[in-house]
Amino acid sequence: KRVNEIEPMDRDIAMVFQNYALYPHMSVRQNMGYGLKIAGLPKAEINAKVEQAAALLQLGELLDRKPKQLSGGQRQRVALGRAIVRKPDVFLFDEPLSNLDAKLRVQMRTELIKLHNRLESTSVYVTHDQVEALTFADQVLVMYEGELVQIGTPQELFENPKHKFVGFFIGSPGMNFLACTVDGSTARVDGAGIELDDNTAALGQKASGKIEIGIRPMHLEVHADAVDGGIPAAVKSVQDQGSFKILTVNMAGHTLRARLPEGHAVPSNEAWLRFPPQWTKLFADERLVNK
Questions:
Q1: Which of 10, 117, 173, 210 is the most buried (most CB within 10 A)?
Q2: 234: number of Cβ within 10 Å
């Protein structure tokens, strides 16, 4: 619905700003209840809604304080509470969790998902955190340098990125990229040959511009001993993340990262890498050439 000519107070849209946008002369209670007061709700109902949101956001002991007496994370929670109490038709979130500590950020992700499911309100959520994007979204819209480069479900973006930036942004770590040339059914990376499936090879032969091969770290096979189709690589570092390990290797002068599940043997000095054709993508001038 077009709202350009509708007064902001009548649009039934609640926005949570990255920089809080709280009224400095009002208490936390007054800030959170101001929209309800303008809407003409009874004082008792306003107080009940504010206290319910304050309990959710761990603000119960701060309701009588002014914004200047709060930390950045507390101010952001007040801004969230101000939006939550209104139960609007649409929520607009501008990086609302960026100023919270890690533990509270995880908790608030859960609470925002529960809130969305309960209210069934459309929520537009802007974030630079790919974990938040994958956690919250039914549909993710990825912007790159002012251009909308892909729309899809989190699973679609993860499995089939249409743009190099999407492959790099979605997933931890991001997708590996190597400049290559396509020779028949093989991608050549500085002399090393990587087998492609027939469809990818055919598309790669027709593509123009800078051709790059891409593969996600969890799809890159790592072997301690030589295997058919394997490419030797030097092990540079291992990062232990508890349930998995991040292996950094150098292959034909290129740095790659592999994500190894718990229990996977970790090569000490040399590894052999395989690129499963079903997980190997080709990009031409940053755009996916696979179908």
A1: 173
A2: 12
H or E element at residue 248: strand 244-251
Q: In sequence order, which ranges of the chain are alpha helices (DSSP H)?
A: 28-38, 43-56, 72-84, 102-119, 130-136, 154-159, 164-169, 198-206
Amino acid 155 reads Q
In order along its 291 residues, the chain shows pLDDT tens digits of 899 999 987 888 988 888 888 999 999 999 999 989 988 999 999 999 999 999 888 899 999 999 999 988 888 889 989 998 988 889 999 988 887 788 888 887 887 888 788 778 899 999 998 889 988 999 999 999 999 999 999 999 999 999 999 999 998 899 999 999 999 999 999 888 999 999 999 989 888 889 999 999 999 999 999 998 899 999 999 999 888 999 999 998 899 999 999 888 888 889 999 999 999 999 999 999 965
What is the C-alpha to C-alpha distance for residues 246 and 211, in angstroms, rounded to an integer? 26
